[in-house]
Amino acid sequence: RGGVAEREVPFAKPGSLTRVYAVASGKGGVGKSSVTANLAASMAAQGLSVGVVDADIYGFSIPRMLGVEHRPTQVDDMIMPPTSHDVRVISIGMFVPGNQPVVWRGPMLHRALQQFLADVFWGDLDVLLLDLPPGTGDIAISVAQLVPGAEILVVTTPQQAAAEVAERAGSIALQTHQRLAGVIENMSWLELPDGSREEIFGSGGGREVAESLSRSIGADVPLLGQIPLDTRLRIGADQGMPVVLGEPDSPAAVALNGIAKGL
Ligand code: ADP
């Protein structure tokens, strides 16, 4: 640390009005970043002041999904986050040269997260979403230390194997004494042209995770919603236009907007 005093994390101050959600998953590829980006865009469209910290060291896909075109700038000793679709975004990928893979160690990641929370000029945020790396690693502990009031959102697919690891990711809240805001099931089904649903990844994972976490913490952990598979969601992500804004009538967007309103 070189003796330099760390700035206080504004979201950790008692009386902070910013709701902080840490979006977690057991494994990669379940749509955690897609959910984060769309919830952020949806809440910003509702008129809330929204920020996203992309702390997914293995993925850092948030800037692309939200169509962020600018880099952060520095004003005095604060970092100004670029904005897209009215969402302020900071990503670990913005500080990594080229497309280089980086070997992150726990303390480095903790330090990066501390800086993203304290040295970025967020202004008055209603909501801050943190896109965590998959798994139950050090970063969840860092979040708990840096923002004790952060609530955890668990993303899973309906698949049994995915649900089991998601449950482990969620149960970290037991140790860190954080609130579990709920479970979001993604890739729940594919709507076929005849209107029927094909459950490509099986069914029940989201409900199972919610029920099992409720049992272990002894409080209700709701299943906040089920998001179907939807080509438009993937295309929107690739084009930097979140499906909740670009195709608001698509089944995935309707589900995501519903979840965002309920948070
Ligand atoms: P994670 O952050 O969990 O690794 P991503 O959000 O990067 O997952 O999603 C993985 C891939 O699946 C991406 O290509 C994304 O566009 C796609 N995807 C995620 N959710 C859906 C969905 N409901 N329908 C269609 N494609 C999806």
Automatic annotation (TrEMBL):
Function: Binds and transfers iron-sulfur (Fe-S) clusters to target apoproteins. Can hydrolyze ATP.
Record's protein name: Iron-sulfur cluster carrier protein
Residue window of the full protein shown: 96 to 358 of 377
Origin superkingdom: Bacteria
Sequence similarity: In the N-terminal section; belongs to the MIP18 family.
GO biological process: iron-sulfur cluster assembly
Binding sites annotated in the UniProt record for ATP: 26-33
Quaternary assembly: Homodimer.
Organism: Phycicoccus flavus
GO molecular function: 4 iron, 4 sulfur cluster binding; ATP binding; ATP hydrolysis activity; ATP-dependent FeS chaperone activity; metal ion binding
Signal peptide: none
Keywords: ATP-binding, Hydrolase, Iron, Iron-sulfur, Metal-binding, Nucleotide-binding
